[in-house]
Protein 1
Amino acid sequence: MSEAQGLHTKEFTLNVGPHHPSTHGVCRFVLQMEGEVITSVTPVIGYLHRALEKICENRTYEQIIPITDRFEYCTAMSCNMGFSLATEKLAGLEVPERAEYLRVIMLELNRIASHLIWFGTTSLDLGAITPFLYGFREREDILDMFEMTCGQRLTFNYIRPGGVSKDIPKAFIPVCKKFLDAFSAKVDDYERVLTENPIFIARNKDVGILKPETAIAYSVSGPSLRASGVKYDLRRDDPYSIYDRFDFEIPTRENGDCYDRYIVRIREMRESAKIVRQAIEQIPEGPIRSKVKMNFKPPAGEVYCRVENSRGEMGFYIQSVGEKMPLRVKMRGGSYNQLQVMPVLCVGHKIADLVAIMASMDIIMPDVDR
Amino acid sequence: MEITEIFKYLYEQLAASGLPQVWVDIVALACAGVIVFGFLAVVALFLVWWERKVSAHIQQRFGPMRTGWHGWRQTIADAIKLLQKEDIIPTLADRPVFFWAPVIAFVAAFMAYITIPFGDGLIVADLNIGILFIVAITSFTVISLLMAGWGSNNKYALLGGMRSAAQVVSYEVPMVVAICSIVLFAGSLSMVDIVQSQAMIYQWYLFRLPFGPIAFIIYIIAGTAETNRTPFDLPEAEQELVAGFNIEYSGMKFAMFFLAEFINMFTVSAIGTTLFLGGWQGPFLPSWMWFLGKTLFLVFVLMWFRWTYPRLRVDQLMEFSWKFLLPISFANLILAGLMKYSGWFNW
């Protein structure tokens, strides 16, 4: 056996990304591997940095809105919303009642659309290709509704300081109702494909357990936090817009593993559909935007406003010196903190679990890099 | 006129031409080989197209539609494209290993067809160890995957190659044990004998309760794993290993792996048909039609798996084989033995 004693195993470095099928954009991981097991993870970010916050310093407040679309393009509505809220607070703008309802409808539809992307990519990352297309099929309906309203399918430029850019067309409400009626059954379909699937459960149960104290320590927010048993949702705990008028649940789970994150997001889609339905029923007539002066100059000061987006807390910090352009804009995205916690979750798991955990955290790179 | 009669006629013509018998046999075998090769090339192209259509319709898409009727010329176009592509070999690759890997995969995939009966009398060589030969030959695929993984000098490819070696070897065992229970009942390793022992539909081994269905399910699961298809497509797990063992392959070498994969899928289905579904036997239609129909049905089942299930993780895959499939297949073999011994269901 003298030959066998000369053999030894060695750790090796595996570079995953920046272009790799399952890094959701251009994230890069430098992994230390012992065979298939990960011993250390180093995320490398910055491949999608577009200096958007800097660009904002040379734009008027209204010109910044289309730039916020690019911050986190899966939920561009909530980026619009976050920035508009902050600007309104800074400049003291009023928002008409109808505009508030339109905002909520669009935000929640956008949340569903974003969760559908997550649903698709999660199943894709676990090797099931078909649910990906199912998710995108329903997302298509939502994008059609957006297109109907504001002419855009991805970067909406819809929610503006003081209201929204356009009223919904007459055909919108019937189309939306039809979608909502069908959607519940569609989600049932998704669940039938994945939720009870033994392979799916085996891949996700007890994988990447995020303890509540770790989650809080790393400022993880959104569905990933709620899956760890912390019932924290800005729509309920720090209500903005008119979220306090709607009746909806905040789904939580206890274990904080990939499976729980999956369940929370699936249930959140149903809750969002519930909010949209209520908003459609209650929506009043009226103006959609208050009078806002062109190139308005908010008073000097600073403001931080946050909204709950599909990836967690999205905050906008604006510093103004009373000019028509802000002095400084900073955006806080949920994905950044979720990427930060990845090394904690992944060490000791297999490389396949890295993909599953990343998918379940719903990290997208434009949210991290900006 | 039946196909077999045409062959028989041609063979008699050849024999009457005055050549020595050895040469007649060699020429006949070579012709049979060429026919099988041509048939399989067509089958592989057809399966690629079919997989794309099946997946498209499962996913509520159309799939290829532009090239010919429902895109039937698509794979021909793809094959021509792959033939024209530049053949790239990585600088630090182990060149001979890198070169021979796809060849071995391709050859191993085709060799299995020597003993597969496509119809009544439509078999290249009815070896008396038929099924054993197939099991042995298809195992060569592992070597090619391992060679591809090692020769590419790429970490992803290496991980893919190692995974496939572990996977194919461990799924071979329950598969062979499942096949053994059939061989036990048929009393022969010859594929033709196995088919002939299930003349009526109730004699199909699939319907010989209780061991038949169990053996069939084990066989299909292990067969899916053997062909590296979802939920067992770990060697080429796209989302983890990008493309696994064939990450560095392009052009015709990639096409050879690709075609070999589809041929293997057809092999697994063809063996499944022969062992469990009565092979070519069936009423009214010609025998080769029955064989093709049953085989394509099994191919469809494999495609159905692929487009429905997520992928297992590597440790779960091994556990499933060694801790679940293997004990069950052994228990099933013992059950089959007891049944054979006691004479139950000995139709």
Note: Residues 97-125 of chain A form the longest helix (29 residues).
Protein 2
Amino acid sequence: MKIGVFVCHCGENISSTVDCLRVADLCKSYSGVEYSVDYKYMCSDPGQKLIKEAIHKYDLDAIVVGSCSPHMHERTFRNAAVSAGINPFMVEIANLREHCSWVHDEIEASTRKAIELMRMAIEKVKRDKPLTKINVPVTKRVLVIGGGIAGIQAALDTANAGYEVVLVEKEPSIGGHMSQLSETFPTLDCSQCILTPRMVEVHQHPRIKLMTYSEVERVEGFIGNFKVTIRKKARHINEENCSGCGLCITKCPIKKKAYNSFEEDLAFRPAVYVPFPQAIPNIPVIDETVCTYYKTGKCGMCLKVCDREAIDFGQKDTIHVADVGAIIVATGYKLYNIEKKSEDSIYKGYGEYGYGKYRDILDGLQFERIASASGPTSGEIKRPSDGRVPKKLAFIQCVGSRDDSKGISYCSKICCMYTAKQAMLYRHKVHDGEAYIFYMDIRAGGKMYEEFVRRAIEEDKVKYIRGRVSRIYEENGKYIVKGEDTIAGMPVEIDADMVVLATAMIPQDDAGSLARKIGIPYDKYGFFNEAHPKLRPVESTTAGIFLAGACQSPKDIPESVSMASAAASKAIILFANDTLEREPVVAKVNEDICAGCFYCMKVCPFGAVEVKDVKDMNGIVYKEVAYINQGVCQGCGTCTATCLSKSIELAGFNNEEIFAEIAAL
Amino acid sequence: MTSDILKDAKKLQTSFIPSGNFKESFKEKEHDKNISIQIHERSVEDEITERTFQDVSLCYQCGKCSAGCPVRYYMDIAPNKVVRLIQLGYYEEALNSDTPWLCAGCLACSVRCPKEFDLARFMDAVREIALEKGVEIKQVNILKFHNAFLDQIKNHGRSYEAGLVADYKMKTLDLFQDVDSAPGMFLKGKLILLPHNIKNRKEIKRIFKKTSGKN
């Protein structure tokens, strides 16, 4: 075997503490080394040319590059080797920068260390075997989890690019929180008016399979080849027969037993209901927990009035399996509430704001419903307790957010804007009303955002008071809001008729359990982690699973939409090829000596280990061995280290190679 | 406690910020009154950090403490502003304020603080430092009340209300303050005439001796 050695100076990064010339000279004397040279910038074009020419001239079989970390330039040198006709896995990198020159300052000692590192790499490369990339087929279908604005956008983009989409939504209708909003900042356009056409588009799209009132049960497989199990919850309505006439809803005698969660519990709904009139699909759901039929076996009013025989009390949950190549997670957020929390919760409630016992202290979404033309008050601002029009309204920002003592350190990002919008809406609807906003900082970074806040102050005369509110209590039907204007240095007390709290955005309750099901990491709050905060913001660390919207961190609508489009394009990029190329650095089981203890299965963090039956000539199974799915294996080596019978080897890092490296020291 | 690096950084920070000729004026006072002092390399901020085990930079000036303070209306500057003055190195202004003295230690601020900054403890430290540095105390009567209360503890090992009233009145010479509330309190058993001493008063006296450094 002929080996070429290339020692890089990395400008002065390596050469300032390592005598590169001496390293290169010494390497010449090692057996198998045909050619050895040093150069100032090996990664540069002339440097790569030097490598290629040497490979041709000396007919090299393998090369060793002493340079920076393989994270940085392994790919560069491998590509250079490939273009000169060498297998990319016959290239070894000795890390002379991060592991040597940067961490030492004595030239003699660090040169000696560099020589040792080079010798190790040379010994390893002698035993390296050419590897070929693994090709795995790609199922060109996407699973989108969550049917809010992010999920809708991701589904539409992927479907319009020509791929099939399965959109799973746990609620009876898609639309998410955006469908609850009245008007949107900074343009004040009606939320429903811009959202519902998109919802209809999803419903009518030939390539989107919409599964509402469904939840993801299990995800198996790997990038390009996921197998997803979806539980479709029983609606007790036959979807094919139902025409969405709504007769069952109007005739249902149960009127006031269940709160309407779409109206943020400000109104009631019947036992059979659609969340809101523009729901997609417009098919009702029967709530088993309040329906009289499920309690006494009587009533059945809906059954009598439905002339399409769509009511099916005996309907059961059904399980569906979908094969997909990529998953886009867009599960969104919920609002923190100020109620008293249990001991084990990471959050704490706001006793000083009454733990949610006052009916006229609302959160942001409740106020959206009250301000919405389709809401419980038909868009008139009224107090939920007595229906009076509030003449003095206090808005409080950063409730929960930026409050370490309540368990949330982050800024929820959108509250500054929506509070300004809500105060503006209130002033537009109640001309003689006063609006006060208690804030700590105004974070209005975004196109036309700062201008919007200034408009609230200058045109709509909303009073901004800088200071957190210490306490709210009821006195003669008014809510006394005790604050301090820290700019004026004066205490402030406002007798408000209604208080709106801009409570923090937190992940959905089941975000953590979903993340464990699909195998993606999440932070301490339950927001899903991106692969890299700057350069890979829409990818999860698991290949083939992408993130969109507020499930990753608090976001407003434009940001969620752009993230959804980015996630969709990531999926589309994945589908550009029929097969996926994967690094061949994967573990392989020697079936002859595998004892079938399956310890590897327990330790594998990616679920790559499967059970394989070994059959004799007559086709009779005589033992079970471990089998590693090459598509799933990420080459971490955990199974290799765990295997008791030493029957697993990691390609590119097998025992022989590693021991030779150690022996060279 | 704060690391050395943090301390250096703070020194650097405070050295940029004008704090008047505060140190000089202090030295004169210290010299005149012959108070034993530590070496003042450390800033007042470091001093507070050491006494309260919390970093003053934690406070992000939301003002919730001032908003809920029951005695806020009597203070010359808001409680959050005292923290601000310390953060910026305006120690003289902070120590001269009567806000720390009016603080009743009800802990409403400490309980509600979103950054879990114990403001009541901070105020304690400010009061202590003001005393040690010999700053002129504007709220003299409050200081007298504190001393009168401590005297009861020293003498009886526990609170003794009648003694406290007598002692305070002797110290302030304002004999008729709040006398009209005395009969009511007496009838409700809030003013017991004879003190209840604890058993081992010597130990209490020893604690006082050890901690105060005098008598």
Note: The domain at 141-233+317-332+508-574 of chain A is CATH 3.50.50.60 (FAD/NAD(P)-binding domain).
